[in-house]
Amino acid sequence: MGSLEKLAADSGVAGGVFTAIGTVSKAAFAYYDQASHKYMNIVKEGGFEIISCTGNFGVLKGRPRIHCHLALADRNGHVFGGHLLPGTEVFVGEVHLTEVKDVKLKRKVDPETGLAMFDF
Q1: What DSSP assignment string belongs to 71-105?
Q2: Which of 14, 73, 78, 81 has an alpha carbon within 20 to 30 A of 22's alpha carbon?
Q3: Do residues 23 and 47 touch, judged by C-beta distance below 8 A?
Q4: For 20-47, what is each residue's pLDDT tens digit?
Q5: What is the distance, to the nearest Å, from the Cα of residue 34 to the centroid of all Cα atoms in its chain?
Q6: Cα 9 to Cα 14: distance, rounded to the nearest angstrom
Q7: Nearest 5 degrees, angle CA 32-CA 37-CA 42?
Q8: How far is CA 93 from the centre of its chain?
Q9: 66 within 8 A of 4, measured Cβ to Cβ
C-alpha cells in the first residue's frame, strides 16, 4: 500500500484503479464489521498466492489514499481475504495501474458508515 501511495504522490496522479497478481510473504487485512463500524484486523505469516487484488485510489486530506481488497490462497488452496492493510509484505508482484483523469476522485468520511468514500 505504501509503495502505491508513494508512486501516486511522486507522479502527481490524483486518482485511478489498479489490479495486482503475485505472492506475499505476510498478509495484513481486515474485515469491516457493519454493526460496530470497525475493522477487525487479521495478520497471517507465510507464503500466499494473490488470487485477486483490485483497488482504487483517490485523494483524502490532500494525499493519495489506497482502497484495496484482496483474496489470497495458501498452499492447500484455502482462500481468504479482505480489506488490504499496511504491513502486507509483497514477495513478488505485478501491478496494472490506470490513471483516471476526467473525474476528481476525492474522498470524505461518510458519517453514517464511518468509511472514507468518494465524494462526487
Answers
A1: EEE-TT--EEEEEE-TT-EEEEEEEEEEE--SS--
A2: 14
A3: yes
A4: 999 999 999 999 998 998 999 999 999 9
A5: 18
A6: 8
A7: 35
A8: 14
A9: yes
